Amino acid sequence: MPDGSVQPLSGGLLFTFEGCSSISNANGDLLFYSDGKTVWDRNHVIMPNGNYNAGTGLLGDPSSTQSAIIVPKPGNPDIYYIFTVDEPHHENAAVFPDQNTNVTPDQDDGFNNGLTYSIVDLSITGSNGSIGDITTRNSYLVTYNPINNSEVAYKCSEKITAVKNNNGSGFWVLTHFVNKFYAFKIDNNGVDPNPVISTTTPFVSINGYRKNSIGYLKSSPNGRKIAIAHSQLGNITGGTEENGQILLYDFDNTTGIVSNPISLVTGGSPYGIEFSADSRKLYATNGINNNLSSQLLQFDLTTTPINQVLIDQYNSTAGALQLGPNKKIYRANFSTQSNIDTHLGVINNPEIAGPGCDYQQLGVELVYGSSALGLPPFITSVFNASIAVTNICLGDPTEFTIPANPNLDSIDWDFGDGNTSTQVSPTHTYTTPGNYTVSVTITVNGSSVTNEQMVTIHAKPVAYAIPNQVLNQCDDDGDQRYNFNFSSLITNTILGGQDPSVFEVKYFLNNQDAIDNTNAIDATNYTNSTPTFIVYARVSNKNNLLCYAITNFTVNVFKRPVINALSNLIICDDALDGDTTNGQAIFNLSSLNNDILGTQSASENTISYHLSQNDADSDSNHQPLSFYNTTPNLQTLFVRIENNLNTDCYSTRPFDLIVNPLPIAIPAQLTQCDFQVNPDGLTTFNLTEANGILTGNNTNYSTQFYTQTNNITPLNTVYTNIQNPQTLNVKITDNTTQCYSYTTLTLNVTINPTTIVDLRECDTDGTEDGFTSFDLSDAGFEIPGNTTKYYLSGNDALMEENAITTPLDYTNTQANNQRIFVRSENGNDCIGINVIDLTVKPLPDIETEDTAVFCLNTPTVPITLHAGIGTQNPTLFTYFWTPGGETTPTIDVLASGTYTVKVTNGVSCFKERTIIVKDSDVAMVESVAVTDLSDNNTITVFVQGNENEFEYSLDSPTGPFQLSNHFENVTPGIHTVYISDIDGCGVIPKEVSVLGIPRFFTPNGDGYNDTWIIKGMEKGFYANSSIYIFDRFGKLLKQMAPGGEGWNGTFNGQLLPSTDYWYVMNLEDGRIIKGHFALKR
Fold first, then answer.
1. Is 305 a member of any domain?
2. Which of 90, 363, 947, 1039 has its C-alpha lying 20 to 30 A from 385's C-alpha?
3. How far apart are CA 54 and CA 44, in angstroms?
4. Boundaries of each PKD domain copy (predicted)?
């Protein structure tokens, strides 16, 4: 625009991720633009000879960092050169010199075309009506070593820039490849194809292409510097590494030589670079974190070493930077994480160091499009007539400069307020703030150019000093650190009524930071590190931070003393004022001082006492340390403790003065008994028995007893009087307030004879251990109108301690005999102490339970029952039997039943013995079960009634007996089972037969096994059975009857041979038994 501002245009047809270029006239009107392949006129019509899709396009690439730059031909306003650089792709290089056919034709032609230029003539009309057309297209320029096939395959990087020459008569167009800069001269004769070549560091390997080729190349507006961004310096074809570099070079715009490299950044993925209009600052974008975010960096080229400042870091890809005619630098925003690509970032004041450059991420809204990575590059040295202005604060001499030009013919300045100058770098002081249109007309080699610029003169603020330039602050926690909010404490004072919407106040810890406007502290939340420090307040015009004023003040942080501990002062009413009941007394306030101070220094702080909070806050009406309360019983005072170095640092707290009343003390007397053998009127008292009268039954009062009021040690409350009567002094203390009064206690002793009564009880509690229960009232000492209590000792009775709590059911605590003391009193006066002797009488020593058996099988034989006295003399006891009423130690009975005898000893204590006589009888056998002819012969006997009332023995009438009625492993033959009544009524036998068949016999005449005979058939058992013997052929050899002598192994008198023989037994119980046996000789 004419004023140098930037405005997005509508209707544009340029859609590219990176490379683009455009050019306007001096009024900011668009002339034409290109993406490096296609060229559009100002009306967005494609020039016929610059239509890539029609086969007449240029050889740049929209994916190239700087696909094109447009340079006007010197001396001819209608002719322009479009210089293009292709994207040097490794896939194209891989098939060189052939065409890479694996590309999208409308994006890449499959060749690395390097640097070319085309000529645009705006004086002609294209065949389609375009304003201007291309007259010469794609002239190649060599920027590589033609004998190096690798360089020929790539040809050039993606970088290109243009700068005016030293005398303004022409331009230099520069690019870079590997380790060389190529500078081509353009003048009114056209383009010189022979470049000036400068070899420099670093060496950018083509092994890392295409990524090594990415990044911007820019020249400074004054034409003296070149800056380059290498996105990476890799060695892997097609690889990605974050090891890029930014370098600064000197440029000789007379010779075209590039020299003196200075590395500014190493690491990351640098992309965009741009100089400020005064050529003193350089800005760059650097991709980090895999290009997911980027940094905006500022380099101050006037410092040594060059100072670097991080201006911004954001989740945006590193994009292009471009200086505009308005001296602002614009940044291409591109992010997949937000919508910032609808805006360009803007550095509003690029010539100011640090944050003062005022970067705005969302600086210019792109109403008609969006941002990606690229911006159209301008020849910034064309702005060489641009005006540089410094010191734009009202009252300061404002300095005006333009870039130096040795061929300057003349210069005319108009400052916009009616004042002019013809100096090259004039100064002018404005008298009022406001906006002024400043113009400069320069004439170089007979040609004149005028540049206008709006200059705003800003009001310069005043920094008003705070009173005495000192801020004293109290610290509450004692560490002399305080969290300051200077904005609320100081800012209004420093502004002194100046408009806070126009001026701002920042605070710094040193003057240089305040001047540089750096390292400002948090004005709303700052905590000091030292007790005393200086703060510098800078008041700045918000519209121009360079318009500022500075004041300073000293901050002192004092400890605010604390009231460490404070208790109410409590004393008892006294007679010092002649009245013990008026609730007034004298207090020693200084007794609180040590607690109030704690560990704080008494010399650094002062303590005072006041009647009200207002007095304490105003430090007025100090009260004496010896203070007599004017409000009875309770009065509130206020204590103040202040720092002696700053009495405004103080603390206060209320506390109470409390006067407690004295306890009411009532005189009393105690009367005690003297029950000694020889009573002397001296006995032992339990003084606490008088407490109820002395204290008026106030349980919160305690007593102490003294023989004199000035005694220090109180008497033991168990006290023996030294005379009769005797008066003691008693101190009555309120246990809550510890206030006390004195009264008297009179001790009296009565002398009465002691009565002894015996109480005797039988030991009938079931344990017979000499302990039993007594009703002590049976002694007859309880008289109506008196109080009677029972004690285990005479001393307890005197002291009235440990009284027996269950006198009506008391069990003695000493076996057999114990003495009990009975105290009878009227009121609290002892009228007698008597004695009860307790005796526990023993019971007869007998067995209280027994049993006996009456045998029904001998009904005429009586049973003798005994009284259970054992070997004791029967004459020592009397007897009574029930149910018969007999009185003898024994009785005879002929029937079963329960019999009881009551046995009484000589002390009239008795015990009863119970004898249970039960019936019993001998057994009656019901049956016998026999298992025989087996490996385990058994006998089981079954009797009538309960078989557990009997014991059993086999073949032995005297035992041993067993409780089980079952016998196992019984030998064959005739056996007798003996059954015994367990109550002793007799034993009965039962014969049983167990059959057994011999497996062999030896008829050899030796008297052993000479016959074969069946065991168990003796004595008439199995008498109706028959036995048959056969040889192995079934011949009957012998028929036998049970109980005989057996078979002797003969047949008809003849000895039969040794062999097996067979038998058949037909038993009377129905069994038929068959088998065989052996005859052995």
1. yes
2. 363
3. 16
4. 405-457
Residue 629: the pLDDT is 95
* Boundary of a domain, candidates 363, 380, 397: 380
CA dihedral (193, 197, 201, 205) positive or negative? positive
DSSP state of 208: G
What CATH number has the domain bearing residue 1029?
A: 2.60.40
Give the chain's domain count: 9
Residue-range definition of the domain harbouring residue 599: 569-660
Backbone angles phi, psi at 567, to 5 degrees: -115, 155
Instruction: Report the CATH number that the domain containing residue 417 is assigned in CATH.
Output: 2.60.40.10
Residues of the chain with pLDDT under 70: 1-7, 26-27, 106, 336-340, 368-369, 380-386, 403-407, 444-448, 676-677, 828-831, 947
- Specify the 3-state DSSP secondary structure of 727: strand
SS3 558: strand
> Amino acid letter at 193?
P
647 residue type, one letter: T
Whole-number Å distance between alpha carbons of 686 and 821 = 16
Count of beta carbons in the 10 Å neighbourhood of residue 77 = 10
Whether residue 371 sits in one domain with residue 444: no
**Statement to judge: residues 937 and 1010 lie in one domain:** no
Residue closest to 70 by CA, chosen among 60, 62, 80: 80
Residues 216, 221, 227, 229, Cα dihedral to 10°: -20
Q: Please choose, from the candidates 670, 704, 673, 672, the residue with its C-alpha nearest in 3D space to the C-alpha of residue 689.
A: 670
Residue with the two structure tokens 């240089």 = 512
Tokens found for residue 619 = 């430090």
pLDDT digit string (tens) for 738-748? 999 999 999 98
Cα dihedral 467→471→476→481 (10° resolution): 170
In a domain, 501, yes or no: yes
pLDDT attached to residue 2: 46
Q: Is the peptide bond before 1032 cis (omega within 30 degrees of 0)?
A: no
Q: If DSSP codes are grouped into helix, strand and coil, which group holds residue 1058?
A: coil
Last residue of some domain: 521, 536, 559? Answer: 559
> Looking at the structure, do residues 916 and 963 belong to the same domain, yes or no?
no
DSSP one-letter string for 591-624:
GGHHHHHTTS-TTTEEEEEESSHHHHHHT-SPPP
Give phi and psi for 342, each to the nearest 5: -90, 5
How much is the pTM? 0.45
In angstroms, rounded to a whole number, what is the distance separating the alpha carbons of residues 402 and 440?
9
